[in-house]
Amino acid sequence: MTIPLHTLGQTSDSTLVLDNLIQQVLSENPQLQASIKDWEAGKTRISQQKVLPDPTLGLNMMNLPVNSFALDQEPMTGKQISLMQPFPFPGKLSLKGKIAESESEIGKYHSYELRNQLVKKTKQLYYDLYYVDQAIVTVTTNKEVLKDFVEIAETRYSVGNGLQQDVLRAQVSLSKMIDRELKLEQQRQSLQAQINALVNAPADAKLGNPIAPKIIARSFNLDSLLQVSKNHNPSLTAWKTAVQKNNQRIDLARRDRYPDFSVGIAYTQRNKLQNGMPGYDFVSAMVNVKIPLFHRQKQDKRVQETQIQKMSAEYSYQNIENAVQQRLQQALSEVEKNQRLIDLYQTGIIPQAEESLASSMAGYQNGKVDFLSLLDSEMTLFQLRLDYHRFLADFHKATAEIETLIGSQL
Q1: How confident is the model over 29-44, as pLDDT tens digits?
Q2: 200 lies in the same domain as 229
Q3: In whole angstroms, what is the distance from residue 364 CA to residue 17 CA?
Q4: N or C: which end of the chain has fewer CB within 10 A?
Q5: Is the same domain home to 30 and 94?
Q6: Are residues 367 and 391 in the same domain?
Q7: Is this prediction's pTM over 0.85?
């Protein structure tokens, strides 16, 4: 399936818009569509469980004599048609329908959880792509600066004011920067293929350039987020429903101790006998009762089995809740850490590094700073700019993790 470039969250100015990309994932992702279809199939099982079992139609030959196989020899010979309808013990069908509804609800919440996971993955890949693009821009800029450094070092060396070592250092740094640029281009292609896979597009479909939204200073309360997650996290809700389903299965297993029964009616048609005796037709009625004779080995054990399964579901819910709490705490720490680092780099470290580089450049031109110090100042500023964009990407990725854990937007 080929998707036009402009549909991959990309606008006419080659900007990759996150909201548009997420909508593409939600509408085109095959895994999510398969999950939705499974849920829709599960909903059709509800009505199936609520109806009575199918009746049984019988056609019988009654008391046929083996010496002649004649229908008019014996008075008890006849042709019979019967209809038998099973009836489960009252309440069983209703419970089966409720269990099917709970299973359908679990399927729905699993689909919601997959949706949230895909949105998180889309956001995290988007911000990884943002970082790589910013790193490429930073590397390209730094590469041009290093070219200038090479030219300056060669000029100073040619007039006897510089060292050959300075030229070699500048050339090596430039070569490393070119190598880094190539690796970043490969990394971008890999991220591009992963994003295209999410929207069911060819791996080499071109993507625009992501943009990171502005950082909004905010503080989070772990207890408040945990409360939201209990109400909105699809995985937790699915396990709550699983506990409810097991309660219903326990009720059904207990009702299996009571007998099911069947009601039937039969009509027997007889021929006139060979001796002239008329053959009158018969009508019969039947009631069958299934006796749970071995309930201690069967029905009681089923009750015990479903009670254990309920306990297992309760422990699984508690385990998921603990995992959500742990991951929320970790994501909150990541958000707060990156928020502080972004502010520190914006207002302090990067401006100071820029001033240091400008000072080193002036000192080098005046012969007061050696080339190694100048190169070190440039590479330090380069790394700080990369770190800043990494912190920005990590902040948004951690925010996406929190939104997935609580099951709603912040």
Answers
A1: 999 999 999 998 989 9
A2: yes
A3: 44
A4: N
A5: yes
A6: yes
A7: no
Choose the final residue of a domain: 274, 291, 308.
291
Q: Are residues 238 and 92 in the same domain?
A: yes
Nearest to 73 by CA among 270, 252, 323, 260: 270
Task: For residue 355, give the CATH number of its domain.
Answer: 1.20.1600.10
- For 213-270, what is each residue's pLDDT tens digit? 777 767 778 888 888 888 899 999 999 999 999 999 999 989 888 899 999 999 998 8
Tell me how far apart the alpha carbons of residues 111 and 407 are, in angstroms, rounded to a whole number. Answer: 13
State whether 133 and 200 are in the same domain: yes
Number of domains in the chain: 2
279 and 379 co-located in one domain: no
Angle, vertex CA 292, rays to CA 100 and CA 307, nearest 5: 45
Q: Are residues 139 and 285 in the same domain?
A: no
Question: Can you give the three-state secondary structure of the chain, one letter per residue?
Answer: CCCCHHHCCECCCCEECHHHHHHHHHHHCHHHHHHHHHHHHHHCHHHHHHCCCCCEEEEEEECCCCCCCCCCCCCCCEEEEEEEEEECCCCHHHHHHHHHHHHHHHHHHHHHHHHHHHHHHHHHHHHHHHHHHHHHHHHHHHHHHHHHHHHHHHHHHHCCCCCHHHHHHHHHHHHHHHHHHHHHHHHHHHHHHHHHHHCCCCCCCCCCEECCCCCCCCCCCHHHHHHHHHHHCHHHHHHHHHHHHHHHHHHHHHHCCCCCEEEEEEEEECCCCCCCCCCCCEEEEEEEECCCCCCCCCHHHHHHHHHHHHHHHHHHHHHHHHHHHHHHHHHHHHHHHHHHHHHHHHHHHHHHHHHHHHHHHHHHHCCCCCHHHHHHHHHHHHHHHHHHHHHHHHHHHHHHHHHHHHCCCC
Contact 72, 272 (CB under 8 A): yes
d(CA 25, CA 399): 19
